[in-house]
Design goal:
globular; EC 3.2.1.8
């Protein structure tokens, strides 16, 4: 009886508590707060998950009956589109929900129903201009990452204080209109930085440039970005600190202190990530990456999340033990994100490569599902038509889960199976 009374007393507090931006605020079985902080509104993304998103453009509505549709996608070959069967169930329910435009009904909803935050894809105005690509993003994704439009060279190519916002603004507008969250990508990176930054050779000047750039970009999109790749690819493959204008001028890792502290000041609610590639297997790079994050956090640098890009090759021996990698990253006590997933084959794959790709996608996705710290998965593109792989790795391709004609490939089912594993 005492337990019952105690629960009854605290329940109103839970219901009335305001949830932070990006926090959960509803869904079947949810017993926490259902209202959001100022500037955010509770948006129902699927029957199991409602989230506090930017209130810009959202309209509140009341529903008294919720219909849940479960979709099952059949195994398919690359040349066929999976058949979909649906079974609807209804649950009488009175609740207040919001709408922020079309809501995805594919991979993102499946992964949210299993307790993860998102399935996302990279995009930019160039790919969004293709209606097939845009429609897949509307129905399959819950998160978007700018492939190029928010990189330093894209936003401020000519001089400090001069900005090109057009492409980034278009991506943000698409995300807001269609109810998607955003990952920002990226600030401190040795590539795609403007020449005027590369030519800085004074620590105080470079510190000011980093702080000013981050304040301008994050300030413009404050409250609209779930997480930022504050720094990207800061390690060489051998585990040493990467040579860059940042490491040369600072002479140590403190350029990361500058960047992460500037990002926290610019948007205190955004998650701040350190992102890198080739963290997919046990190596000195993975070990040193984890140690660096722990060191940064120990001295108060606000690192909230780590990202494994996961640009993989079909049949790679590390893929079956991918969960071990995620477990290692999770020892940083941060949110773990798979940030740029693709699994490439030869440009014209054999049937065995196609079959292996299905298995590999399943294993990677399953590893995230079985790692509590893993929040979500971003695939680095929708269609093979727009993949970065063929132009970077000669003779290789076929890395994504839609083909050149925007048909679902066999590995789509591998992704679904991984979610359901």
């Amino acid at each position: 009886m005492k337990t019952y009374v105690a629960l009854a007393l605290v329940a109103p507090v839970l219901v009335s508590a305001q949830q932070p931006m990006w926090g959960q605020c509803g869904g079947l079985g949810w017993t926490g707060g259902t209202s959001c902080v100022a500037g955010a509104a509770c948006s129902t993304l699927n029957p199991y998950y409602a989230q506090c998103l930017s209130a810009v453009g959202q309209q509140t509505s009341t529903t008294t009956l919720r219909t849940t549709t479960r979709s099952t996608t059949a195994q398919t070959t690359p040349s066929t589109t999976p058949a979909t069967t649906t079974a609807a169930t209804t649950t009488p329910r009175t609740t207040t929900t919001t709408s922020s435009g079309p809501v995805g009904t594919g991979l993102d909803n499946l992964i949210k129903a299993k307790g993860k935050k998102y399935v996302g894809f990279c995009a930019d105005p160039g790919t969004l201009s293709n209606s097939q690509n845009a429609n897949i993003l509307r129905t399959e994704s819950g998160q978007l990452t700018p492939e190029n439009s928010m990189k330093w060279e894209s936003i401020s190519p000519n001089s400090q204080g001069s900005y090109n916002w057009g492409n980034a603004d278009q991506l943000v507008a698409f995300a807001e209109t269609n109810g998607k969250i955003l990952r920002g990508h990226t600030f401190v990176w040795h590539q795609q930085i403007p020449n005027w930054v590369k030519n800085i050779n004074n620590k105080a000047t470079l510190t000011s440039a980093i702080q000013t750039h981050i304040a301008a970009v994050m300030g413009r999109y404050k409250g609209k970005i779930y997480a930022w790749d504050v720094a990207n690819e800061v390690f060489e493959d051998n585990g040493s600190r990467r040579d860059s204008v940042f490491s040369r001028v600072f002479g140590d890792w403190t350029f990361l202190d500058v960047a992460f502290n500037a990002a926290r000041a610019a948007d205190p609610n955004a998650k701040l990530c350190l992102n890198d590639y080739n963290l997919d297997y046990s190596s000195s790079k993975l070990t040193n990456f984890v140690d660096l994050v722990k060191t940064l956090k120990a001295r108060g640098v606000p690192v909230d999340c780590v990202g494994s890009q996961s640009h993989l090759v079909v049949g790679n021996g590390a893929i079956p033990s991918f969960k071990t990698t995620l477990d290692s990253l999770a020892t940083t006590n941060t949110e773990v994100q798979i940030t740029e997933l693709d699994i490439r084959t030869s440009a014209s794959p054999s049937s065995s490569q196609i079959s292996q790709q299905v298995t590999d996608y399943r294993n990677v996705v399953s590893a995230c599902m079985k790692t509590s710290a893993c929040a979500g998965i971003t695939v680095w593109g929708v269609s093979d038509k727009d993949s970065w792989v063929p132009s970077t790795f000669s003779g290789q391709g076929y890395a994504l889960i839609w083909d050149n004609n925007f048909n679902k490939k066999a590995c789509y089912q591998g992704f679904v199976d991984g979610i359901n594993s």
